[in-house]
Write a structure and sequence with these properties.
heterodimer, A: 318 residues, mainly alpha, 2 domains, 16 helices, 0% strand, B: 487 residues, alpha+beta, Dna Ligase, domain 1, 4-stranded parallel beta sheet
Chain lengths: 318, 487
């Protein structure tokens, strides 16, 4: 497989995942706030922008943090490189450069999603609220996963796709937990009920609310939510689940067996999996959740860099 | 006289109409189609047309235009009324094109080899050497199996005055459009299945397999382990869709210049598992961009050292380098002579009277008759930089006059050919109108025989009264049928 193709597959997957993740968070946050009479609007929308890593850009573009502005910024702004519309456009652009390597069904699906998204009118959608739009994006991303699973041979190319979206999803979850937790600590100590809602929203945004209830049969507690989203090996949005998938994908490409590694990316992925398998949530909170997540995010970044070094780039030979 | 709501008021006009011999009287090969469409209301037809458009959009069958500064993706408009060729007519085209392709190949072998044609004084050496597409670097290079013209897309037009097909242009560098032939057919069979089924249309989908067979046969290492790739300039190229389409259809890698590297005279792909040798390159990058060490040094689309690897015989290219000398529009007027010289045959297909501005007497005639002529730059393709005299104002004609005088060798002129027309749907008027068409069949040459998929690409000038069919200039296309039975 050409290095350029592997690179494009990896990023195609990441962009799709980023679009879906952003849509989930937007939708859930909006609906949570509908049910509240709290005036702390700014407080509740701010984390989304921080999570996207685009706080500075947002402040330059908008005078005020409110639902409409955040929705427009995260969903539609062409000058926000992480906006949903931009992510879909970039995913499609990546797919277009490798059309000969993906199935016809995959191409038609992502191309159709792109055309659908570009036909949405931001004004109409902002007026209607984010649900309709976000739902289409989530559904579109899920369908793309399904089409890919069913039509692309599960060979090397497939591995780069699943490495791409698992790594992206792990990062999205880490940022989600970090930002919400941070925000709760920093904010004025509001009523417990409110905090409860906030964490419920976090769970819902990754589709884990019902799973949480089944698992714990208990009120929503930050520690348990964090444990669920970081350590649960079965939950498809947990960090552990996703880094395990990254490790499996990397091993499938390189052929290394358990306990060995072929490159730095594999070594780091393996180490993260071990930590998340044996650390307890109490230990994590004792040493500081923020520091722990920050460290995970840094390692995720290094994994991405080393994948590029090992498989995508050729040093220029003079 | 037959009746049909869809063709009500249709006027074949003063041109040769491919469908109607006279108002309301379809030609034999069109009779069945006319009957099938007769039962259809304009509204129904409109609905079918929209379905076809949607199919193209979702499949992303687009081309890129440059004129607006940044590449913009556009749909290549598809007109649902097919162009139908009678079998006997097609057989003649087939023979005429095969003859022409073989002669062009022999000319290229000769020009870059022994140069007998100059010694026998059948074409001036100066005319060939002054061609901008002539590549000195290719002199004395023995190309694999002696093939220069693996893929040709020769443009034909039917002259309304004679009703006969003649050759308008030879495209023997990197002709595009075959993907539209194949996709048009697919969309056609899905959109109007019953109409299609009522005819016995000769299939076209063996093209990729035949091309793949020819490419494989060029491998310097034998066929079994050959790595064949298609070299594209990338997604901003107008024909990118076609490049990825053909790569997929043939199951070969689609590569860009940055995916390749030349080391020790061999070409390799950069893969996730290191370098892998390349044997055959179906290149869709023009000569001047292929190798910055030999041609344009500012090219990022090519591969440094590729020419040396090619000359050493370590990699095969299709088409060969330097083919532009054979489809130069000034050389074009000598092709009938090539056929006589190399094959000792009379040309089967006619050509259009061509004035070479490089010749003093022709230049004088051209400058005197600019408002009635078509003037083309000799080395361009894609319909760029043309003057259509009758459709141009005095200012533009004067601009061209200055260009021609500044560089006469670079221009040729031809009388305006009144192209034949085919009924095409005018979505603004909601009715059928006659629109001018040409025909580009795709010829594959394996060194022994020429294979041409029946039909080819019918390009149609969708704007009323326009004669320019190029996709870059507002043209569309039609599915082209050759019927199995005798008309």
């Amino acid at each position: 497989m050409l290095s350029r193709i592997a690179d494009s597959l990896f990023w195609l997957a990441r962009y799709i995942e980023r679009a879906e993740g952003t849509a989930r968070v937007l939708d859930v946050n909006y609906h949570m706030l509908l049910e509240q009479s709290q005036p702390s609007y700014r407080l509740r929308w701010e984390p989304l922008i921080v999570m996207a890593g685009e706080a500075d850009r947002f402040r330059k573009l908008y005078p005020e943090v409110n639902a409409e502005n955040v929705f427009e910024f995260l969903a539609f702004r062409p000058d926000n490189p992480s906006s949903i519309v931009q992510c879909i456009a970039k995913a499609r652009e990546n797919a277009r450069t490798i059309r000969d390597c993906i199935s016809r069904e995959m191409w038609e699906d992502i191309n159709g999603l792109y055309h659908m998204v570009s036909q949405f009118s931001p004004q109409d959608e902002i007026a209607a609220g984010p649900h309709r739009f976000c739902d289409r994006i989530k559904f579109g991303a899920h369908r793309f996963h399904g089409v890919t699973d069913a039509t692309l041979p599960h060979d090397e190319g497939w591995e780069f796709l699943r490495i791409g979206w698992s790594l992206e999803r792990a990062e999205m979850t880490a940022r989600l937990v970090d930002v919400q937790y941070h925000n709760l600590l920093d904010g004025p100590s509001a009523a417990d009920v409110l905090d409860n809602h906030q964490w419920m929203a976090v769970l819902r945004s990754v589709g884990a609310y019902e799973a949480y209830q089944r698992e714990y049969h208990a009120p929503i507690e930050p520690e348990k939510v964090a444990a669920m989203l970081m350590l649960k090996p079965q939950h498809p949005h947990s960090i552990r689940f996703n880094i395990e998938t990254v490790r499996a994908g990397l091993r499938a490409v390189s052929g290394s067996g358990p306990g060995t590694y072929a490159n730095e990316a594999e070594r780091l992925a393996g180490r993260v999996v071990e930590r998340l398998s044996y650390d307890t949530v109490d230990e994590i909170f004792r040493q500081g959740l923020h520091g722990y997540l920050d460290d995970l995010l840094r390692i995720c970044g290094s994994i991405g860099e080393d994948i590029a070094r090992s498989y995508f780039y050729y040093a220029v030979v003079a | 006289m037959l009746q049909s709501a869809l063709f009500e008021g249709y006027d074949p006009g003063a041109f040769y109409d491919e469908m109607f011999a006279a108002p309301g009287q379809p030609r034999p090969q069109y009779r069945k189609l006319f009957q099938k469409l007769a039962s259809m209301a304009p509204g129904q037809f409109e609905e079918k047309r929209k379905l076809a458009d949607l199919a193209f959009l979702i499949q992303g069958i687009t081309f890129t235009v440059y004129s607006d500064g940044q590449g913009t993706e556009r749909l290549f408009p598809f007109d649902l009324i097919p162009r139908i060729l009678a079998r006997s007519e097609w057989e003649r085209i087939n023979r005429g094109l095969s003859q022409r392709v073989v002669a062009l190949n022999l000319f290229l072998q000769d020009v870059y080899g022994r140069q007998c044609i100059f010694k026998d004084r059948r074409i001036p050496r100066s005319l060939v050497y002054s061609c901008p597409q002539f590549r000195r670097e290719m002199i004395g290079v023995e190309v694999p199996r002696g093939i220069h013209t693996h893929i040709c897309g020769i443009d034909l037009v039917r002259d309304s005055k004679t009703g006969e097909f003649c050759v308008l242009e030879d495209n023997v560098r990197t002709p595009s459009g075959i993907s539209y032939v194949l996709e048009n057919r697919l969309v056609m069979t899905r959109t109007l299945p019953d109409v299609f089924r009522a005819h016995e249309v000769l299939p076209v989908d063996h093209y990729p397999a035949e091309l793949s067979r020819i490419l494989r046969s060029l491998s310097p290492r034998g066929e079994a382990e050959a790595q064949i790739v298609l070299l594209t300039p990338g997604i901003y190229n107008s024909a990118y869709f076609e490049h990825s389409f053909l790569a997929r259809q043939m199951g070969i890698g689609l590569v860009e210049g940055r995916d390749l590297i030349v080391d020790g005279g061999m070409v390799y792909t950069k893969t996730i598992r290191g370098l892998k040798r390349v044997d055959v390159i179906y290149r869709r990058v023009d000569d001047e961009f292929l190798d910055p060490l030999s041609f344009r040094p500012d090219s990022f689309l090519g591969v440094p050292g590729l020419l040396a690897a090619y000359r050493a015989g370590n990699v095969a290219l299709a088409n060969a380098i330097g083919n532009g000398v054979a489809d130069d529009k000034a050389i074009y007027s000598y092709v009938p002579e090539f056929i006589r010289y190399y094959l000792a045959e009379e040309p089967i297909l006619g050509t259009v009277k061509t004035y070479l501005c490089g010749k003093a007497e022709d230049l004088a005639y051209v400058l005197d008759h600019l408002p009635e002529l078509v003037v083309k730059p000799a080395g361009e393709s894609g319909g760029y930089g043309m003057l259509i005299g009758p459709a141009s104002d005095a200012k533009r004609i004067e601009e061209f006059r200055r260009c021609i005088q500044a560089n006469p060798r670079n221009y040729i002129a031809q009388p305006v050919v009144p192209l034949s027309r085919v009924p095409s749907y005018d979505s603004e008027g909601g009715c059928m109108g006659g629109r001018h068409v040409d025909l580009r069949p795709y010829c594959l040459y394996d060194g022994e025989k020429v294979t041409i998929v029946p039909g080819g690409l019918t390009r149609v000038a969708l704007q009323k009264n326009s004669l320019v069919v190029n996709s870059s200039q507002g043209g569309g296309s039609k599915d082209t049928w050759v019927l199995r039975g005798e008309d």
